[in-house]
Amino acid sequence: MFRLDADLKVYLHREAIDFRKGINGLATLVGQSMGQDSFARAAYAFRNRGGNRIKLLIYDRTGFWLLIKRLEQDRFAWPRRPQAVMELTAQPLPGCGADAATIATVMTGKYADGMPLYRMEAVLGRVGIALSRGTMGHWMIGASQRHLQRLHEAMHAVLLAQPLIHGDETRVQVLHEEGKRAQSQSYMWVYRSAESSTTPVVLFEYQPGRGQQYPQAFLQSYAGTLMTDGYSVWRTLTQVEALARGDLPAGHTRADYTHRLRQQHSVPVLSVLRTWLDQQAAQVLPKSLLGEAITYARNQWSYLSRYTDDGNAPIDNNAVERDIRPFTTGRKNWLFSDTVAGAQSSAVIYSLMLTCRACGVEPYAHLCHVLTELPLRAEGQTCTTCCRLTTPAASRHNSTTVHVARCGEIRAYSLTAVVVDAR
Known about the structure:
The protein contains 12 helices and 14 strands. It is α+β, with helices and mostly antiparallel strands. The two termini are 29 Å apart.
C-alpha cells in the first residue's frame, strides 16, 4: 500500500494538462513549467481539463510513482492564483472550506476580543458574507478537538514541572449537560505559572462542579507550591512586598531577600493581626458579616500566612485572577456555552490565548501557524514537550516552544509570529 508522509510538500500545476502524458512527460513539466526538481522529496499534482481527474507524480529514490484519481460525480477544487506553482497545505478541518486564517480570525474575535459568534454573524452579514454562528461554532469545536487539544496536553505537562502554580475558578453556564438543568452552574478551573516563570503557561479546564476532586485530578502528583484564594486583609503588608521588589542588595538572591524581609517585617504584623482576630472572635456575633470574616480568616490562617516561609511565593493570587478577566469579560457577551463540547473547546482556546498573552505573542499569528502545521501531523499523536522561553534578537516577543515527537523526528511549533520549523 502506498502511503504519503504527513509532512510531504505537494505542488499543484495551475493549468490543466494533456492527460495522455506519462511519467517522462510529467517529469519534464515539473522542471520546465513548474521550475522544480522532479527527483526532490515532494509530490506534483496535475489535473485534466474536465477537472475530474488528477495525476500525482512522486519519486521515492527507487523510481517514480504515478498515481491517478478519478471522481465519478464531482470535480477537484483547484486554487486560482497567478503563480504557475502552488503549494498545497492541509485544511484544518477535512471537508470544510475554512482555512487556518479564517478559523484563527473567528477564534481571535471571540476569545481574545470578546465578540460572541452571533454578533460576528451579523457583522459578516452586513458585508454580504453568509456565515452562521452554528458553522463557526463547529469550527471552534472541531479545530480544538482535532488539533489544539494536543497543545493543551503538552502545556499541561510543562505547567506541572513549575515550582509554583496559581489556581482559581470561575463559573460558566452550559445549557445542555447530561444530568444538570440549564440554569445550573459549571466551572472553569484556571491554572497558571508564576509571573516570574521563564516558561509562562496559562491553562483553563472545564468541569461540571467545584469539588476538590477536579484540581486533584488536574494537578496529579504535583509537589510544588499551589497559590489559591485567601481572605484579603493584607493591606499593611504591601509595603514589605514593594520593598522586596526593589533594588537587590549585593550577595542576595531575590527569593532569599524576600524571605528575609518577610520574616523581619511581615511575620510580626501577622502575629499582631492573629492576636486581634482571636480577641475579636469572642466579642462579635458569629453570624454577623464581621464575625463570618473573622471565622474565615482564623480557619484559613495556616494557608494565608504560609507565603512568609517561601521567598518565591507571591503574597496574592492576582496573576491568575488577571487571566480570568478576559474570560469573564467574554462571558458577559456570549452568556453561556451550548454544550459540554463547546465549553471544553473554549477552555482549550482560552488556554492558548492567555498563554500567548503571557509570552508576549500575537495570538492570531500563533493560531494561523499551529492550524497550518498541526493538520500535517497524524491525528491522536502523542506530544512530548520541552518548553523554553527565548527572546529572538530580531523580535521583542518571547517564545514558548512545544516539541512534538513523531516517528523519531522532532518538530518545533513556536509561539511566535514567525513560522518556525526547527530540527
